[in-house]
Structures are given as structure tokens and as C-alpha cells.
Amino acid sequence: MRIVRLDSGLEPLFWEHVTQDIPNYYFPILRLKRQREFTEIVLALDEENRIEGLMMIYRNVAVQLRGSVDAAKALLERLNLDKVDIQGEIEHKEAILTKFAHVRKSSEIVLMTLQKGEENLQIRHTTEVPTPEDAEEIADLMRRGSPDWWGDTTAERISAWNAAEQRLWLGTKDDSRLISVGGATVDDWATNIVPVVTHEDYRNRGYATSIVSALVEQIIQKSNLCLIHVESDNEPAIRVYTKIGFKPYKRYCFARAER
């Protein structure tokens, strides 16, 4: 097995490979298309120069691992970062946990997909596009809703995210106060919805269902494929997404780890 960095000569091979399974390779495709300057792709090639696995490194922190277990192990040997947020296929879990001595967070992620025509939209609450002045409220909802994932989110980070990815946001307000919000990175080839958060005082009232439905309604005007990632033990969220038309596609392991 040969481990090489992606270069212009290998790009046709890369694109042919990843476009055969866009949901699985969503993040490497997205980062290379939109933020190439911050993205490194490493390939594991077999003797016939076919891709057996790949590793994406984004901003020297976020790592995506795909391919066979042997390819994953070989790619991980080349990973020299001391701290990572790493997501691999569920079969890679042992190799990832062996690589890093200290794991601060570990979870199983379910990727759910919705093809245009499969949607069952349920919009019971009014949604609106938040203004730039709402960035702090979005950040606060994210921090409160999921401290493990979004505990360090700031208004500045939201603004930078918007500038880099031209994100679509929809929210619901109560007396001018943002109580539920969802975001998505919209593209014609696929769109990923993240985050979806509701203030704790307003949960179990259908706000998340309305937000995700409203996002999907807008997304399918531009993209035939919607994606959403959810922790496997988050049963309420999975029920909401299933009700709207999302179906489980693939499972991954995630680790926030240090060597």
C-alpha cells in the first residue's frame, strides 16, 4: 500500500472515487471545493493505483478517515497531530483509539440522508432568517444546547462560518428572542444541516421539526440530497429527522483526542 498526498495529477482519480458515494465523502468534497487552502488530503493506494482509503486534515484539527481498516491504520501512522477531532467509519474505532492515548470525547454518529421527493415537511411554527446581529444568540443557543460539541462557539465564529460557507440559517423567535435555530451549508451536489438547537425552555414543542422542515424546503430547491449527522443515542432527534423523511445511511465513530 502506498501513502501519498493528493496532488493535481491524482485529482481525477480522487474525484472519480468520492463522487461514487457523496454522502460518505461529503466532508472531503466540501473542504476541497470551498476551503482548499486549509485542507490536506492523503490517499492510500493499492498496487493497481486504486484508492483504498483517504484521510482529510482540515485546519490541522479536524480529521476525516475513510476506507478499509488496513488503509485507515496506514493513514493514521502518517498523522502527527497532537490534538484532533477525528471521525472515521465505525470499523476504524479500534485503530483510532489505539492511536491516541487520551480521548476526551467519544461517540457514535449516524449519518441520515434525504433525497428530493422523500421529504415529509411539517412546519407548524413561523421561521425567519436571523440577522447578523443575531450571531451572539445563535452562539449562545449552540453553547447551551450541546456544550460538548459547541461549548467554545462565539459570535465571531458564527460570522466567520457564514463568510466562509455562505450558510443558510433559519430561526424561530419569541418576543424578539431567538429560541430555536438551524443552519446548513447549501450546495448543488449535497447539503449538510448543522446545527439544530432549541432553548431548553422550549423543547418538545415541535420547534426543531419546523426548523429542519423549513430548511429542507429551501434546500431541495437547489440540491437533491440533504444530509444530517446525529449522535446514535439522541433518540428524540432521530425521531424528528425520521418523521421529516431522513433515513439512516452510515455509522461513524468520533473522538476528540490527544496523543
Give an overview in words.
The chain has 259 residues and is of the alpha+beta class. It is built from nine helices and eleven strands. α5 packs across α7 (155-165) and α8 (207-219) packs across α9 (235-244). The mean pLDDT is 95.
CATH topology label of the largest domain: Aminopeptidase
How many E strands?
11
Shape, principal axes of CA atoms: globular
Name the beta content range.
25-35%
Residue-averaged pLDDT: 95
Order of helices and strands: EHHEEEHEHEHHHEEEHEHE
Can you identify the CATH class of the largest domain? Alpha Beta
Brief overview:
With 259 residues, the protein is an alpha+beta fold. It has 9 helices and 11 strands.
List the helices and strands and how they pair.
Elements: E1 2-5, H1 11-18, H2 26-34, E2 39-45, E3 51-58, E4 62-67, H3 69-77, E5 83-89, H4 93-99, E6 102-115, H5 135-145, H6 147-150, H7 155-165, E7 168-174, E8 177-185, E9 191-198, H8 207-219, E10 225-231, H9 235-244, E11 247-258
Helix pairs in contact: 5-7, 8-9
Key terms for this structure?
11 strands, single chain, eleven-stranded mixed β-sheet, 2 domains, globular, 259 residues
